[in-house]
């Protein structure tokens, strides 16, 4: 029997609503500037340009409402509430009409960004990874199976900080819809079961501080609440 030279890292799994079984995570992809109003607030043209993608690491996901630890080396960490998609299968060059057949379910996520580190990277034309793929940078809800909720095309999406609504939009405002995102991403990589895709954030992104209470909701999908520590 073969063995590993160091202990194997624990598998990353997410809870599934109404089930004792969990969803194993393979990769985590994110879509940038997929809501027009957010593109404008970030200083970009909101036209329907081709989507672009970046990644987080599977172990950046924080399920179950656990606290978000404010990261080191940053003094400007921003929240970005998003709907995420969990895939049950995949492939390369998936057609738009077949893309939703790949979806297992949906959930609520927050893509935390070390904005100061990201701004510095942009200014120097360097990669963003250190601003996006850091420890605990993506709190997530449980997964709502598509067999129960369907494939939501609209529904209010919001983030409340300390009782005040900060972000509010609707899934219908996504520039690129879920099926289009899956199809386009599959042109670049071979998608597979276990992949998670964060689909972009509406306007209103802003900073968090230690002690903040965050509550997120997507109508028809789920809720997510946690504390910044």
UniProtKB/TrEMBL annotation:
It is an enzyme of class 3 (hydrolase). Keywords: Hydrolase, Metal-binding, Pyruvate. Residues 28-228 form the Fumarylacetoacetase-like C-terminal domain. It holds the Pfam family FAA_hydrolase. Its EC number is 3.7.1.5. SUPFAM superfamilies: FAH (SSF56529). GO terms for molecular function: acetylpyruvate hydrolase activity; acylpyruvate hydrolase activity; metal ion binding. This is Fumarylpyruvate hydrolase. The lineage of its organism: Bacteria, Pseudomonadati, Pseudomonadota, Alphaproteobacteria, Hyphomicrobiales.
């Amino acid at each position: 029997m073969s063995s590993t030279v160091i202990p194997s890292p624990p598998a990353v799994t997410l809870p599934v609503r109404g089930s004792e079984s969990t969803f194993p995570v393979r990769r985590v992809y994110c879509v940038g500037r997929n809501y027009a109003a957010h593109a404008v607030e970030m200083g970009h043209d909101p036209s329907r340009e081709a989507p672009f993608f970046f990644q987080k690491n599977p172990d950046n996901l924080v399920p179950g409402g656990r606290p978000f630890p404010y990261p080191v080396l940053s003094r400007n960490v921003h929240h970005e509430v998003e709907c995420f998609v969990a895939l049950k299968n995949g492939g390369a060059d998936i057609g738009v009409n077949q893309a939703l057949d790949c979806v297992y379910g949906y959930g609520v996520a927050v893509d935390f960004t070390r904005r100061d580190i990201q701004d510095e990277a942009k200014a120097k034309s360097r990669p963003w990874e250190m601003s996006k793929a850091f420890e605990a940078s993506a709190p997530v809800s449980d997964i709502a199976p598509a067999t129960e909720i369907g494939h939501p095309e609209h529904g209010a999406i919001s983030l409340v900080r300390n009782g005040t609504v900060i972000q509010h939009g609707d899934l219908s405002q996504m520039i690129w819809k879920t099926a289009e995102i899956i199809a386009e991403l599959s042109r670049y990589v071979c998608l597979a079961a276990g992949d998670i895709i964060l689909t972009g954030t509406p306007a209103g992104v802003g900073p968090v501080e230690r002690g903040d209470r965050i509550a997120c909701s997507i109508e028809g999908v789920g809720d997510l609440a946690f504390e910044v520590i």
